[in-house]
Amino acid sequence: MGQDGALKTHDMVQETENEKMGMDGCGRLRSFDLNQEPECDRDTFIEENGGSIGGYEDEEADELVGAIGVDDVMKLTFDTEEEAGKFYNLYAKLSGFGIRKSNAKQDAYGISRFRKWVCCCEGYRNEKWFNYEDRKREAKPITRTGCGACFRVKYDIESVKYVVTRFIMEHNHPLASEASVQHIRSHRKVSDAEYVQAKSLKLVGAKICQIMKHFVIKAGGYSNVGFCIKDLYNRMDEERIKDIFNGDAEGALGFLAAKKDADDMFFYKYHVDNKGRLARLFLVDSKSCADFSVFGDVLVFDTTYKTNKYRKPLVVLAGVNNHLNSTVFGCALLSDERIETYEWLLSTFVEAMKGRKPVAVMTDGDSAMQEP
């Protein structure tokens, strides 16, 4: 099959001039326009899928939540903290509210001794935001009502399990409906299967907004997708960062080490943050060192801000030779533009140049650059 007619994705999506042909969730071939807002009816979708939402029949979900009491929950045990969190999150979704993590404690070995989850409406908004004088935008709606619903587990050393020590069911606010509960933050999630499908569509040139519309059409409406477009953006960016950490950073350091073996005057230095991620990288080759020894009286210090695919500042240290042509003395890839970052860069540059410093340094008006 030729390239123009190739099957591009897992869902057999084929582009035409004005529309795309795709397989829907039932395996039927149909066309859809990516630029047209999908029309769907949530009641029709629920009826076609057996009247279920999130894998539970509506009546079964109500019976399940209604049958759970405080005494029943207090008898539960969990092997891990994650299992306890998943249980409470599922209970919250069936009940119609969201959750978030509260206080916790870990021992010296990193084992959680206890963990508490609270309702997303727990607490109150800070008073300073009510009296904010220089307000340029309208204040966001108040969502914190001081709700006392919570779920707390503690690690039991004898049974080597997490036991429930506190469970409060009562809320002081209305609960969300079945159609809107999945849009609460704790229930929005892009699954691994959905991410793999989105990645395959991204590789063939589809935009995130088009990928999101593809999921909407397959699910039968925005209310049935289970996440919003911002969640899809965040998941794609999160996986991109993981790919960079697992592949590009180690590959770059390996390449620079090979260059160092082939060129004795080649210099590079890097710095990792407290999470083990590559935060700063500086490199200078032998030609740059030789040029700086002759034309290094004036140093031009500038940053091209987030123009690369890693969205990190690229600093180019340059100058002018005797022919009035630009010459590069070194370059660095940084994670931020703080004062301590620029101090590290300049000290590393002086180290690479065997202690020689430029007579004058030209920078832009950035205060962090002027500080060192």
Summarize the structure.
InterPro entries: FAR1_DNA_bnd_dom (IPR004330), MULE_transposase_dom (IPR018289). 33% of the residues lie in helices and 23% in strands. The chain has 10 helices and 16 strands.
Q: What shape does the CA trace take?
A: elongated
Poorly predicted segments: 1-57
- The portion of residues forming beta strands comes to 15-25%
Structural class: alpha+beta
What gyration radius follows from the Cα positions, in whole Å?
Answer: 28 Å
* Secondary structure tally, helices: 10
Distance between the ends: 61 Å
Organism: Coffea arabica
Pfam family, one: MULE
GO molecular function: zinc ion binding
Domain FAR1: 86-176
Describe the structure using short key phrases.
FAR1_DNA_bnd_dom; 33% helix; Protein FAR1-RELATED SEQUENCE 5-like; 372 residues; MULE_transposase_dom; zinc ion binding; alpha+beta
Please describe what this structure looks like:
It is a single chain. The protein contains 10 helices and 16 strands. It is α+β, with helices and mostly antiparallel strands and 372 residues long. A 6-stranded mixed beta sheet has the order 11-12-15-14-13-16, sandwiched between helices. A hairpin with a 5-residue loop joins strand 14 (314-320) and strand 15. Mean pLDDT is 78; it is low at 1-57.
Indicate the topology.
Elements (H helix, E strand, L loop, with lengths): L13 E2 L4 E4 L5 E4 L9 H7 L3 E2 L2 E2 H10 L2 H5 L2 E2 L2 H15 L3 E8 L5 E8 L30 E7 L4 E8 L23 H12 L4 H12 L9 H34 L4 E6 L5 E7 L1 H10 L2 E7 L9 E7 L5 E8 L5 H14 L7 E3 L4 H4 L2
